[in-house]
Design goal:
- The protein has 189 residues and is of the alpha+beta class.
- It folds into 2 domains: 40 residues, no CATH class; 132 residues, Nucleoside Triphosphate Pyrophosphohydrolase, CATH 3.90.79.
- Helix content is 19%, strand content 44%.
- The protein is built from 3 helices and 14 strands.
- The strands form 5 sheets. Strands 9-6-12-11 form a 4-stranded mixed sheet, sandwiched between helices. The chain has a 3-stranded antiparallel sheet with strand order 3-4-5, with no helix packed on it.
- Helix 2 packs across helix 3.
- The longest helix is centred in the middle third of the chain and has 13 residues.
- The radius of gyration is 20 Å and the shape is globular.
- The mean pLDDT is 91.
């Protein structure tokens, strides 16, 4: 571990380099590690971190402006959530290809026009997962290709209703809230 100290305006600043990870659990999509690093004052500490390959979220827009949402049963909370389609990157999978794959699997729509919108860390306090957001347009129905354990219902919803659903709590999924609000504020007009 290397700690570099420098002074700026009377304060000591340091850059930290973390130590090796100890694998605690290796799952099918992510790994839980105990990660050692050092605080700004040099104290050693360990944190549990979920090491994740990354993910995608897609904002599918129909020609009339409606959003293709999904109602997705989430085992972790024991009920369905209304959300945008999303998924984990496969080994060495490029985010745009994963976005198209997930779009087809979960919504039954395909698109030749999938454009990057933004990317963000989903929960940097516990994971290194970076989620890549895309908008998909010029959609064409091809049929869902759900995985055996997926329970997903497609809901085509006007953007104005999506925003109302965020406001009144019917959309509770953070990635969907972030991307829908991002698009409402910064998307193409």
């Amino acid at each position: 571990m290397i700690v570099r100290h420098r002074r700026s305006k009377g304060r000591v600043l340091c850059s930290l380099r973390r130590m090796a990870d100890e694998v605690l659990f290796r799952g099918s999509r992510w790994t839980l590690v105990s990660r050692e690093d050092h605080s700004r004052v040099g104290a050693t500490r360990r944190r549990e971190v979920v090491v994740h390959p990354g993910s995608v979220v897609i904002l599918p827009l129909l020609d009339d402006g409606r959003v293709v949402l999904i109602e997705n049963h989430r085992v972790s909370i024991g009920r369905p959530l209304v959300e945008l389609p999303a998924g984990t990157l496969g080994p060495n999978e490029h985010p745009p290809l994963a976005a198209r794959r997930e779009l087809i699997e979960e919504t039954g729509y395909d698109s030749e026009r999938i454009t990057p919108v933004t990317s963000f860390f989903v929960g940097p306090g516990v994971t290194d997962e970076r989620m890549h957001a895309f908008v998909a347009r010029e959609l064409r129905a091809v049929g869902q290709e759900l995985e055996d354990d997926e329970q997903i219902v497609v809901r085509e919803t006007p953007m104005s209703e999506c925003l109302t659903m965020i406001r009144d709590g019917r959309i509770e999924d953070a990635k969907s809230i972030a991307v829908l609000l991002y698009w409402a504020q910064f998307g193409e007009r």
